[in-house]
């Protein structure tokens, strides 16, 4: 199976960048500030700007989500330095290799990671800063023009490398999506060909037994088995449909959610259910309905297993205050004072957490009050689907 995340930066590349930038700055320091000492103020300025931009280039690995800010800061600093150099006395020798190398890294990272609009704007500004730097700082001689052309070519190389990496990420994401689709369709075929086939056989045989034992005492039990089999078959078919059409966000009215909660707590004598007054006006996805059912059912099962002395169990289902999440809360008072109870050691909470995480929700389970235990699930609701 293809990896689900992009590969981490190779440590060797990071070390190489540090060595190259440090070496270029050291060479400039020795050549300009020591050999040709005393260095003019412009040389000190250019050296300091090169060091700062080099640091920004190295930080792009540490803070990839701030690539835009790092690249924009480096370009603005380079342009400001060129503007200062334009009004100062031109220096004899053209320099600035550390700054150019760092600018190349940042421009390439911007073309690789940022959205198209930001990437294009920063690439153009970066090219302007790199190509105009030699002319503005050192005058319009033939040597500076040649250096400007060279720096423009280096800018083009950095843009090209960034776009190649961007295309590679897009191809990798497309390959991962295709692999997920293949696995989803394979699972749908297995469910349809195997599980649905066997459930259909059970339903047919149950119907035949009902005809044979039409007047027997087993008729009611057979009818229940038939209905359960038919419901399971319908659930499998709906699951197959969702697996085959992952892009369809089918929304069902919350009455199914209400019925699901009431069915999950039907056998609890000491369970109090509190549903939001306008819960019937909400709309939720089928995945949310099934997840709420699993959370309530698993939480009540854990109460029976681990909180035998619980006298009151409360199930609350309501929209969150932000209006974008559905809160499912199950509380019990089965924790004795002074005793710290850990989460159950089985796989119930793990399964709930995985189902909720798949919906980008949050799960919290732990002590609540002096002798309470609470399971709280917050599930996102569809945008614009908070009311019918």
Give the topology, please.
Blueprint: H1 11-35, H2 41-62, H3 67-87, H4 97-113, H5 116-138, H6 142-212, H7 219-244, E1 252-253, H8 255-264, E2 271-275, E3 283-284, H9 286-306, E4 313-319, E5 325-332, H10 348-358, E6 362-367, E7 373-380
Parallel strand pairs: 2-4
Antiparallel strand pairs: 1-3, 4-5, 5-7, 6-7
Please characterize this protein's 3D structure.
This protein is an alpha+beta fold. The protein has two domains: 1-247, no CATH class; 252-380, Histidine kinase-like ATPase, C-terminal domain (Heat Shock Protein 90), CATH 3.30.565.10. Helix content is 64%, strand content 10%. It has ten helices and seven strands. It has helices at residues 11-35, 41-62, 67-87, 97-113, 116-138, 142-212, 219-244, 255-264, 286-306, 348-358, and strands spanning 252-253, 271-275, 283-284, 313-319, 325-332, 362-367, 373-380. The chain has a five-stranded mixed sheet, with helices on one face. Strand 6 and strand 7 (373-380) form a beta hairpin. Helix 3 runs parallel beside helix 5 and helix 4 (97-113) packs antiparallel against helix 5. The longest helix has 71 residues, at 142-212. The chain is elongated, with a radius of gyration of 33 Å. Keywords: ATP-binding, Kinase, Membrane, Nucleotide-binding, Phosphoprotein, Transferase, Transmembrane, Transmembrane helix, Two-component regulatory system. It comes from Amycolatopsis camponoti. The chain crosses the membrane at residues 12-34, 40-59, 68-88, 118-136, 142-165. GO terms for molecular function: ATP binding; phosphorelay sensor kinase activity; protein dimerization activity.
């Amino acid at each position: 199976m293809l990896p689900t995340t992009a590969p981490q930066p190779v440590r060797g590349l990071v070390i190489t960048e540090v060595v190259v930038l440090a070496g270029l700055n050291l060479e400039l320091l020795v050549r300009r500030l020591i050999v040709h000492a005393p260095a003019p103020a412009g040389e000190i300025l250019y050296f300091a700007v090169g060091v700062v931009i080099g640091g920004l280039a190295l930080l792009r690995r540490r803070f990839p989500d701030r690539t835009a800010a790092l690249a924009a800061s480096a370009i603005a600093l380079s342009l400001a330095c060129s503007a200062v150099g334009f009004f100062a006395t031109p220096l004899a020798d053209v320099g600035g290799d550390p700054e150019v190398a760092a600018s190349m890294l940042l421009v390439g990272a911007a073309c690789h990671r940022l959205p198209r609009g930001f990437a294009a704007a920063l690439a153009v500004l970066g090219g302007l800063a790199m190509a105009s730097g030699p002319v503005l700082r050192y005058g319009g001689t033939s040597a500076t023009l040649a250096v400007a052309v060279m720096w423009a070519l280096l800018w083009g190389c950095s843009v090209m490398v960034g776009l190649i990496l961007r295309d590679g990420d897009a191809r990798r994401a497309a390959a991962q999506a295709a692999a997920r689709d293949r696995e989803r369709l394979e699972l749908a075929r297995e469910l349809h060909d195997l599980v649905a086939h066997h459930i259909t056989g059970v339903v047919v045989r149950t119907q035949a037994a009902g005809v044979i034992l039409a007047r027997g005492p087993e008729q009611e039990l057979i009818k229940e088995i038939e209905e359960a089999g038919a419901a399971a078959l319908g659930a499998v078919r709906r699951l197959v449909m969702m697996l085959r059409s992952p892009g369809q966000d089918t929304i069902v009215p919350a009455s199914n959610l209400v019925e699901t909660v009431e069915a999950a707590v039907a056998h609890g004598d000491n369970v109090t259910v509190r549903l939001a007054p306008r819960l019937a006006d909400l709309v939720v996805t089928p995945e949310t309905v099934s997840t709420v059912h699993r959370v309530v059912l698993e939480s009540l099962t854990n109460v029976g297993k681990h909180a035998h002395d619980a006298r009151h169990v409360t199930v609350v289902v309501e929209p969150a205050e932000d209006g974008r999440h559905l809160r499912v809360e199950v509380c019990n008072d089965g924790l004795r004072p002074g005793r710290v109870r850990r989460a159950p050691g089985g796989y119930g909470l793990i399964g709930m957490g995985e189902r909720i995480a798949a919906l980008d929700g949050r799960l919290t389970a732990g002590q609540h009050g002096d002798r309470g235990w609470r399971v709280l699930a917050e599930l996102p609701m569809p945008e614009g689907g908070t009311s019918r």
